[in-house]
């Protein structure tokens, strides 16, 4: 059963909110326009009014604090008149844009900034990479006028100082300059989120991140947060984090490196694993870091990998901040590594593995490896110096080292004369990699008969050992599903050539923790070695219990691409021998900053270098370049998907999968036929943006990158965007013709308003060709109700962006996964309820953290890689994190949403939904796929049918024509949209049913995968597969009066955020959008609730419940629209 | 030092053993058959001659022991890989004594000797297939799990996978290596099944050369510096169809070796010698 609720809340316009966006200046209050780098004028007025107000603001968003600084300084300069300033500011903004393009124009722009910098005692700017600075400055400019507390750019120490400063600020707003040293970047980041909605900042902040709220509530000034961040986090700049950090205490982490040295660094208590990991990599000057990871010993004395996407504190579950840096994925062919330093680190790990006996090898091999170690560490054997067995015996080469072995080592060492350390390392690895246990991670287990065995996870699959003997082996391609339940670990095996059925093999682990650990390791290894891109964590698992854990880092394929772009000169590094001498120095706790300095690299720079692919997009002025590069990034995702599929086809693809593909395609076609025409090219832009947006890209490709980094990158991209901007606007407006001109204008405004939006716009423009996502959208269209679109218009849905992204994902690989899952027949009925509520006051919705049951989880390794940008790598055990991530996304996405016609947005949403659902439900996936296919190549149908992948490619290339066609369709539909888009009046709380859209019944077929269908794809007839029929009904209730978002006044998107919470069978996605229109701020909340169940769901009851809850949560809001979407399976699925 | 797994099938030495008179009457056999001792000895002499002259190996010839009727099948007494030699504990009790002389010979060759002292362990060298990258050990009437474990312990560098054996006496009764990454396999069902298992268990990919006759699948492959691929295989007289398959091998030096008599005692080509590479050690 499937229940989906879509709840959208719109906040009514408020005048003179405490935040006082529009409110006349009180006291010192100054109103100013925020110029985004894009140069679009955003009319954000922040009141610097009374202290109390300031405090409130501060609480609301740490970001504002930065603004406050600026504001205070700016007051003198800019304060003159908010309104008048606005115009000026706009001009300035434009200038700034130009400057931004230049990269460092900001300072010129904001004289006070310079002052601040100069004044700042510990200007973090030093640390900040030039680009970062530029970005930061830009951000500042954008935010510039925030009159609240100044951010403190001081180092960690300054936290306290910041607090004091904040106090001061409270006391006297105007004198913040002294403390205002804040690092621009951080401030800016912080500002970004809040900027969007000045008045609603509080609300927004709440919505964005629990952490933030808490912090703010605590009364700590934003500045604190900033200051704290600067100290440690300067490298990764993410406003959100900064905010968090404010409250966070610093913790000293001790990381044991592979050479035995300790690396000490301070980390905020709530820092995520990747933060520490990056710190270590930075310290090591390591670029090819994806093979490595941090491990810790859990309370059960088990070694666990630190999840980079989760807070460290939540993982270690003890106060022992002790970690070790290790190789996590052993590259099967180390010679393919790009840098010697990476090989060296791998050598260190292997030496340890060999010496400890974890990597067993023979006497001769011990001697050989040891001799290479000697050569690498000590160079040529010097006959003169008695290189006695003394020092050799100090080095552990083998668990059972003896004199004989040491003599053998020495003897062999002599034969390596002339070999450079790098060569010796390479030789070492060439031999080590051939060892049978190389890269095998062993886990104790029992087989079904209780016999002790070992399960070994490696690059190629799962190995089963009894004692030292390999008694079975399951290559990844043979494994259909990996799961664990309690202390049982299961793998479902693909049937062999002669076998009819899949078989499941179960093993007993010691306890559920070890089962989960093994499962995780399997998921990660499979993802890393088998996929071209990581599979996003599943968000839409309704019926499935358990962990949504997925590998979040780069895959080997990705990291190879990334490392192939490394072009730095080979870094110098010290080997252990030299370090041994100076160990005292090494042992000393080193602050990360210091390390950075030592390395002589800006942390940022390093990061960039690492992910050059990503950076490319970021580089300013690259609009075209972006498009060109798109293969790597923008389109990169798609490409990855395709590749992954190909990969699967090569190795794993069974005909079953093929069948699924085709079936899904056929289904899509059908749905397409029945469905209303899809949305126009704009969608493409969206997706492109999403896809191309640096943040997204980063996430996808390199999830390890901290949010801060992502943000930073986004900012960077902005400058470049400026140029593109106009184009983007044009594009946006183009599709809109049907929509009111106002909307168009609005969208433009929104775009400008949103920082994030600009870059994406560029991307979109560049990517003008539709992405795979476009294709998908149409499919959704079929399912989706047109009415929702209207709602969207008024409300900018932050959610959608994420969803859209998802959609993209769905197109390529999801089908496979979906199909497989389909077999399980978990979902039968789908109901979607969309409720739109308008409220005067916006309140954040409580975010329910997803419950991850540790008891069991599933993973389908063979599923093609679906890359969903939207999805956050984190497991949501921690509520705050989720929020943050999403917030970020929202920020980015919001602008797009605003700009695009509501229809599109909704479609996108639905699509996204579908995508989410699709994973579990084949049906949906099929629909999407089909839809996609159709869009791309209605004409090319046949080809598409044969090979979905191909279709996607084609779509990319030739989307344009299709897109146009779609556009036309849209236009036709638009009238409806307009009609439906009644204005919502905030005053009327009651939802009225405006229209009931006829339930489009989509007959969906489930694809059954039977191995029996062998042979070639072409031979498989789609028709043979139909199994499941789904009935979809959509009912829309609308309040009689809708707020005229379509009004001539262009609304400015202040904030947008999406919150997703999941429970076992319910997924709630909340979209909070704040829009500023003609002096009115409106908050719209959209909630989408998806309920999945085995039995019929009383959607009336569910709806009532949803509305009730919504009202409880947002007492002052009214429900303006309710859309119920119900999907029921007509027939039982075949399993 | 050549390093791990370098120089597959490069040999410098061979250990063989004479045929005792007791062979004809007392040697173990799976089917009743009369063995012509003279023919067998002639056969064996030709075999050793090939090793010595054609392959250029230093052949260590152990004297036959009348109390050990099966002693000519030296392969079962030891597994040599690199410079490590595992002296086995043959599955047939009557053959346990064969290892003594073998151990001495291997010691003389300065190999690292590992002995299988565990009384629960049995292992016949004929059940051990070394592919150059890993070991497969057939779990047969003669070889048990414990024996395989000890072998895995002796050769830690390599994966050791076990292959359940149903019918054939030894794993190598229907297969052998025909070159780097090339497995010669018989076409019987047990043989094909075993191959499937081996393929599934391996991280490496092997080519296979299927021959109609299982017994013909047992060949001796040697990589000679001056001759390249050399394959000792059955004669056309014995297995004409299988011989045709071998003749399709390109760039191979094919040396048919008669094995008419010894095959009656389940003795295959590989059974009568232990090949050793001593170059890597110096």
UniProtKB/TrEMBL annotation, chain B:
CC per GO annotation: mitochondrion
UniProt key word Hydrolase: yes
Active-site annotation: 170 (proton donor), 271 (nucleophile)
GO BP: any one term: arginine metabolic process
Keyword terms, alphabetized: Hydrolase
Residues annotated as transmembrane: none
InterPro entries: DDAH-like (IPR033199)
SUPFAM superfamilies reported in the protein's UniProt record: Pentein
Binding site residues for substrate: 28, 70, 75-76, 95, 142, 265
Family according to the record: Belongs to the DDAH family.
Official protein name in the record: Dimethylarginine dimethylaminohydrolase 1
Source organism: Scophthalmus maximus (Turbot)
């Amino acid at each position: 059963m499937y229940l989906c609720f879509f709840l959208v809340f719109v906040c009514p316009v408020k005048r003179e909110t405490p935040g006082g966006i529009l409110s006349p200046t009180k006291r010192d209050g100054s109103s100013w326009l925020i110029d985004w780098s894009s140069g679009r004028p955003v009319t954000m007025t922040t009141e610097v009014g009374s202290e109390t107000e300031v405090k409130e603001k501060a609480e609301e968003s740490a970001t504002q604090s930065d603004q406050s600084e600026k504001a205070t300084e700016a007051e003198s300069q800019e304060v003159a008149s908010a309104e008048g300033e606005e115009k000026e500011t706009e001009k300035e903004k434009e200038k700034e844009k130009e400057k931004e393009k230049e990269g460092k124009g900001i300072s010129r722009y904001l004289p006070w900034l310079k002052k601040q910098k100069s004044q700042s005692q510990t200007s973090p700017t030093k640390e900040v990479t030039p680009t970062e600075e530029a970005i930061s400055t830009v951000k500042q400019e954008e935010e510039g006028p925030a009159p609240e507390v100044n951010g403190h750019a001081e180092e960690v120490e300054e936290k306290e100082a910041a607090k004091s400063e904040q106090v001061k600020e409270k006391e006297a707003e105007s004198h913040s300059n002294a403390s205002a040293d804040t690092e621009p970047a951080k401030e800016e980041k912080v500002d970004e989120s809040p900027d969007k909605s000045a008045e609603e900042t509080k609300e927004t902040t709440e919505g964005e991140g629990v952490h933030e709220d808490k912090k703010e509530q605590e009364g700590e000034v934003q500045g604190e947060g900033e200051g704290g961040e600067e100290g440690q986090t300067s490298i990764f700049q993410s406003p959100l984090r900064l905010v968090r950090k404010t409250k966070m205490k610093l913790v000293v982490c001790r990381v044991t490196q592979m050479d035995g040295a300790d690396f000490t660094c301070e980390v905020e208590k709530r820092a995520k694993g990747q933060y520490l990991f990056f710190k270590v990599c930075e310290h090591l000057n390591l670029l090819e870091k994806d093979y490595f990871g941090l491990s810790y010993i859990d309370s059960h004395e088990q070694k666990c990998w630190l999840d980079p996407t989760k807070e460290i504190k939540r993982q270690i579950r003890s106060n022992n901040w002790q970690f070790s840096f290790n190789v996590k994925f052993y590259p099967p062919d180390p010679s393919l590594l790009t840098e010697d330093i990476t090989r060296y680190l791998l050598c260190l790990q292997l030496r340890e593995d060999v010496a400890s006996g974890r990597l067993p090898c023979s006497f001769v091999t011990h001697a050989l490896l040891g001799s290479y170690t000697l050569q690498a560490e000590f160079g040529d054997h010097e006959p003169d110096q008695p290189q006695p067995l003394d020092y050799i015996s100090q080095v552990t080469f083998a668990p059972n080292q003896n004199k004989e072995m040491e003599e053998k080592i020495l003897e062999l060492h002599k034969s390596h004369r002339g070999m450079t350390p790098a060569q010796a390392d390479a030789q070492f690895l060439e031999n080590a990699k051939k060892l049978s246990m190389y890269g095998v991670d062993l886990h104790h287990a029992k087989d079904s008969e209780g016999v002790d065995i070992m399960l070994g996870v490696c690059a190629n699959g799962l190995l089963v050992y009894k004692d030292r003997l390999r008694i079975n082996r399951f290559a990844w391609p043979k494994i259909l599903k990996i799961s664990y339940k309690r202390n049982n670990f299961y793998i479902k095996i693909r049937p062999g050539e002669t076998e009819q059925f899949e078989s499941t093999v179960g093993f007993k682990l010691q306890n559920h923790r070890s089962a989960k650990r093994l499962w995780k390791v399997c998921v990660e290894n499979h993802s890393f070695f088998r996929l071209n891109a990581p599979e996003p964590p599943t968000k839409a698992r309704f019926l499935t219990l358990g962990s949504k854990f997925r590998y979040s880092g780069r895959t080997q394929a990705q990291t190879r691409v990334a490392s192939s772009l490394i072009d730095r000169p080979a870094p110098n590094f010290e080997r252990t021998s030299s370090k041994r001498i100076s160990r005292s120095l090494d042992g000393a706790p080193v602050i990360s900053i210091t390390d950075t300095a030592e390395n002589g690299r800006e942390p940022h720079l390093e990061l960039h270098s690492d992910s050059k692919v990503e950076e490319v997009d970021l580089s300013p002025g690259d609009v075209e370049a972006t498009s060109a590069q798109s293969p790597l990034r923008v389109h990169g995702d798609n490409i990855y998907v395709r590749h992954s599929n190909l990969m699967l086809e090569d190795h794993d693809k069974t005909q079953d999968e093929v069948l699924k593909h085709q079936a899904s395609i056929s289904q899509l076609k059908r749905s397409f036929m029945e469905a209303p025409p899809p949305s126009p090219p704009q969608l493409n832009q969206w997706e492109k943006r999403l896809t191309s947006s640096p943040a997204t890209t980063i996430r996808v490709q390199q999830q390890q990158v901290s949010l801060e980094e992502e943000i930073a990158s986004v900012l960077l991209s902005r400058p470049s965007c400026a140029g593109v901007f106009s184009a983007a606007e044009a594009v946006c407006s183009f599709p809109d013709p049907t929509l009111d001109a106002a909307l168009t204008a609005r969208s433009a405004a929104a775009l400008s308003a949103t920082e994030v939006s600009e870059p994406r716009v560029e991307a979109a423009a560049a990517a003008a060709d539709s992405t795979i996502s476009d294709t998908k959208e149409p499919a959704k269209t079929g399912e989706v109700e047109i009415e929702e679109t209207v709602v969207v218009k008024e409300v900018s849905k932050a959610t959608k962006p994420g969803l859209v992204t998802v959609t993209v994902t769905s197109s390529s690989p999801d089908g496979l996964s979906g199909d497989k899952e389909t077999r399980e027949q978990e979902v039968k009925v789908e109901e979607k309820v969309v409720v739109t509520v308008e409220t005067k006051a916006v309140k954040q919705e409580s975010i329910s953290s997803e419950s991850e049951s540790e008891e069991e989880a599933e993973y389908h390794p063979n599923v093609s890689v679906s890359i969903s940008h939207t999805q956050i790598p984190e497991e949501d055990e921690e509520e705050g994190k989720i929020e943050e991530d999403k917030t970020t996304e929202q920020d980015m996405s919001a602008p797009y949403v605003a700009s695009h016609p509501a229809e599109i947005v909704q479609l996108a949403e639905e699509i996204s939904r579908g995508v989410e659902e699709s994973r579990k439900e084949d049906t949906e996936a099929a629909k999407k796929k089909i839809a996609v296919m159709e869009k791309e190549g209605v004409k090319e149908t046949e080809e598409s049918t044969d090979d979905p992948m191909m279709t996607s490619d084609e779509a990319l290339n030739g989307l344009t024509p299709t897109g146009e066609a779609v556009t036309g369709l849209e236009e036709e539909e638009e009238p409806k949209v307009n009609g439906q888009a009644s204005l919502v009046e905030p005053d009327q709380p009651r939802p009225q049913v405006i229209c009931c859209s006829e339930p489009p019944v989509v007959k969906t077929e489930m694809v059954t995968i039977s191995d029996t269908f062998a042979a070639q794809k072409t031979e498989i007839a789609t028709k043979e597969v139909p199994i499941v029929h789904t009935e979809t009904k959509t009912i829309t209730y609308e309040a009689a009066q809708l707020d005229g978002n379509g009004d001539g006044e262009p609304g400015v998107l202040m904030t947008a955020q999406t919150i997703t919470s999941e429970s076992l069978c319910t997924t709630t996605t909340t979209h909070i959008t704040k829009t500023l229109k003609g002096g009115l701020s409106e908050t719209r909340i959209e909630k989408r609730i998806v309920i999945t169940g085995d039995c019929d769901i009383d959607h009336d009851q569910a709806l009532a419940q949803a509305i009730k809850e919504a009202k409880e949560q947002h007492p002052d809001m009214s429900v303006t629209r309710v859309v119920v979407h119900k999907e029921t399976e007509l027939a039982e699925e075949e399993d | 030092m050549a390093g791990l797994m370098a120089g597959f099938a490069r040999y410098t030495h061979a250990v063989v053993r004479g045929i005792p008179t007791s062979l004809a009457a007392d040697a173990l056999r799976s089917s009743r058959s009369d063995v012509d001792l003279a023919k067998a000895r002639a056969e064996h002499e030709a075999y050793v001659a090939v090793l010595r002259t054609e392959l250029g190996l230093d052949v260590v010839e152990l004297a036959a022991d009348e109390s050990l009727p099966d002693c000519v099948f030296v392969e079962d007494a030891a597994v040599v890989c690199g410079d490590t030699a595992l002296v086995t504990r043959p599955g047939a009790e009557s053959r346990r004594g064969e290892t003594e002389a073998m151990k001495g010979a291997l010691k003389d060759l300065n190999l690292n000797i590992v002995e299988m002292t565990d009384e629960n362990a049995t292992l016949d060298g004929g059940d051990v297939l070394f592919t150059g990258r890993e070991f497969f050990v057939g779990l047969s009437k003669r070889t048990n799990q414990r024996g395989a474990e000890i072998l895995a312990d002796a050769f830690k560098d390599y994966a050791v996978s076990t292959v359940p054996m149903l019918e054939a006496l030894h794993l190598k009764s229907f297969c052998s290596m025909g070159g780097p990454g090339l497995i010669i396999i018989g076409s019987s069902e047990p043989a094909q099944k075993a191959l499937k298992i081996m393929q599934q268990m391996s991280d490496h990919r092997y080519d296979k050369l299927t021959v109609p006759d299982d017994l013909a699948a047992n060949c001796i492959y040697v990589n000679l510096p001056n001759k390249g691929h050399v394959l000792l295989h059955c004669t056309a007289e014995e297995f004409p169809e299988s011989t045709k398959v071998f003749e399709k091998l390109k760039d191979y030096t094919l040396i048919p070796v008669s094995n008419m008599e010894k095959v009656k005692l389940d003795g295959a080509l590989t059974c009568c010698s232990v090949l050793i590479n001593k170059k890597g050690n110096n």
